[in-house]
Amino acid sequence: MRIGSMRRLRRGFACVAMSCLVLAGCHREAPLGAVPATAPGAATEKNTPSTWDEFAHAETDIATLQARMARGELDSRTLTRAYLGRIAAIDDAGPRLRAVIELNPQALREAEARDAERKAGKFRGVLHGIPVLLKDNIDAVPMVNSAGSLALKDHRPQADAFLVQRLREAGAVILGKTNLSEWANFRSSRSTSGWSARGGQTRNPYVLDRSPCGSSAGTGSAIAANLAVVGIGTETDGSILCPSAVNGLVGIKPTVGLVSRHGIIPISHSQDTAGPMARSVADAAALLAAISGRDDADAATQASVGRVVFDYAPHLKTDGLRGARIGVLQENGVDSQPEVNAAFERAVAALQAAGAIVVDAEITTAGEWDDAELEVLLYEFKADVERYLVASDAPVRTLAALIDYNNANAKTEMQWFGQELFEQANAKGGLGDAGYTQARGKARRLAGKEGIDTALQAQDLDALVVPTTGPAWPIDLVNGDHFTGAGYGAAAVAGTPSITVPMGDAHGLPLGLTFLGPAWSEPRLIELAYAYEQATKARREPRFLPTLPLTVEPL
């Protein structure tokens, strides 16, 4: 999102000891600052870069794991223990990613229950026995839900979020919670992506001193580094797509209303959604199918009736781009950089080689919705977060109380940045204010009807494509994020779907290609994204480099 022009915020809203990890029952409090006791990437005798790569399930997808479990070569308990060991090896030690903020103390018992069901002939589906990580703004019993804030460090909701209920019904094992940009990057315009007072600074597994983006920073870092099979992020504007792109992942931001937001700490009911983050389109699609569906507690999901797809497998087509009409957004909001431009050109060529009809396209209203969007978010955050805090019996009940807590605990909560967005939101009136209703209508119209929809309809396009964002920038707690622009904003404001897929790298830092489509076009976007992924296979495993080498030749 962007502040002022909304640029600073487009980086993304809602946006242990080994023995403890094996028991899956430890709260994992990270130091507050960004610099660990051991320098990032520093190796010890028992934990060297070579051992970080020695993981039996590295890059293994859901289908392969299910096939092994069906043959009796693997069970969910063994798989879950392996991921707990992986977390101990590289999240708490080694490169110290700080991606996982808390482990589920019941994870091994959940895995054992799924194994018992499988032996009894009960198979719940493709997620049966699969370990999943959740962003720490999603209610999941018995864990804390904190949005990374110490004000909520003792907040343990008594019921699962609707999407977590869906995951459990599908047989998934809830492995734990991931760190995030505190309050999903909606506390300050100077925040640093991936930092929270509760979880510390999450690192990018490709280059450890680079940003993981946010606000679903921990999920992005964790899934890229193989700390779980798949993960859930949330997005208001970029919080799934940006961390997916800079961590070399597939991320799906669904149509608002496809996935229930009930039980998720909110920013905006107009734009918030949860969505999958995975190492492949197939895995992301499987996860999306599991969490979608109507929920009486979220009115937006009523529109999904008759549109929900519970099995995207028929849409995983290697020829999905053949005959597709794709609009290329050359003016796309991403800062011009040689490596990004070259990767985008190669991506467009790959689309054409796969049979797509490629034309230049334009969103003529791009950026015109920025001020209205911020106004909407400020109004809705105050109303929505207070509704959540009361309904979930949180230890603080109002935005004013959160502001007071941060002021009283400034040494821990505000050592790096303030809370000016909280203060601006708290000064707003109710959702009946004319200023709010006018801003909401303006933002939706400029991003949706006169934005994405017009661009698609003008040339009868299946989708638009754009670079997701630039390469990850250096972590800088003093100055905040050095964000280099993004191409996904229209879909976020319009409430329409978008998918990012790896498209290459810049000096080893992953880059993503985003597909934008009309509302409820997830099946078609998955076809396009899968075909592109299979044609390019651009994802590379992270290398956990401490930094990028700087070699400057003398003049």
Give an overview in words.
Helix 7 (162-169) links the parallel strand 2 and strand 3 (173-178). The model is unreliable at 1-5, 10-27 and 29-47 (pLDDT under 50). The chain is globular and about 55 Å long. It has 555 residues and is α/β, with parallel strands linked by helices. The two termini are 40 Å apart. It has an 11-stranded mixed beta sheet, with helices on both faces. It has a two-stranded antiparallel sheet with strand order 4-5. The protein is built from 18 helices and 13 strands. Helix content is 34%, strand content 12%. The protein has helices at 3-7, 18-23, 49-52, 62-70, 76-90, 107-119, 162-169, 217-224, 241-246, 281-291, 338-353, 370-391, 399-408, 410-413, 420-426, 434-458, 489-494, 522-536; strands spanning 100-103, 131-135, 173-178, 195-196, 200-201, 230-235, 250-253, 273-278, 325-329, 357-361, 463-467, 498-506, 509-516. The chain has a single domain, classed as Amidase signature (AS) enzymes.
Q: How would you summarize the topology of this molecule?
A:
Elements: H1 3-7, H2 18-23, H3 49-52, H4 62-70, H5 76-90, E1 100-103, H6 107-119, E2 131-135, H7 162-169, E3 173-178, E4 195-196, E5 200-201, H8 217-224, E6 230-235, H9 241-246, E7 250-253, E8 273-278, H10 281-291, E9 325-329, H11 338-353, E10 357-361, H12 370-391, H13 399-408, H14 410-413, H15 420-426, H16 434-458, E11 463-467, H17 489-494, E12 498-506, E13 509-516, H18 522-536
Parallel strand pairs: 2-3, 2-6, 9-10, 9-11
Antiparallel strand pairs: 1-3, 4-5, 6-8, 7-8, 7-12, 11-13, 12-13
Helix pairs in contact: 5-6, 12-15, 12-16, 13-15
